Amino acid sequence: MNWNSLLEKLKPFLSDASTAILVIAPLVAVLMVGVNKVLEMVSDGQQDQMYSQKTKKIFVCLAVIFLASLIVKIVENYLK
């Protein structure tokens, strides 16, 4: 079996999976940030800082998801 034929068969699935991840990721991020902000409000000083750092990490992960998707599309178009 040729790799190109396998890739062509998987392309629609990968495209749909990518779209689903890009739609679900911001929703999950908003939910996680909301939970962390509520926990940050009811926690003491040291835990407050921990939840603030977790919130920053969530935004960084969200940015990585969107940048990775963009880079994959750019490389895919370049290789065509």
Features:
0% strand; 80 residues; single chain; 2 helices; elongated; 92% helix; mainly alpha
Give a quick precis of the structure.
By secondary structure, the chain is an all-alpha fold.
What does this entry look like structurally?
By secondary structure, the chain is an all-alpha fold. The protein has one domain (21-79). Helices cover 92% and strands 0% of the residues.
From the helix content, strand content and strand pairing, which structural class follows? mainly alpha
Percentage of residues assigned to helices: over 70%
Number of domains: 1
Instruction: Provide the β-strand percentage band.
Output: under 5%
**SSE string:** HH
Number of helices: 2
Radius of gyration computed on alpha carbons: 18 Å
Q: In angstroms, what separates the terminal alpha carbons?
A: 21 Å
The strand count comes to 0
For the biggest sheet, the summary is: none
Uncertain regions spanning at least 5 consecutive residues: none
Give the overall form: elongated
Tell me, rounded to a whole number, the average pLDDT.
87
Please give the structural blueprint.
Layout: H1 3-41, H2 45-79
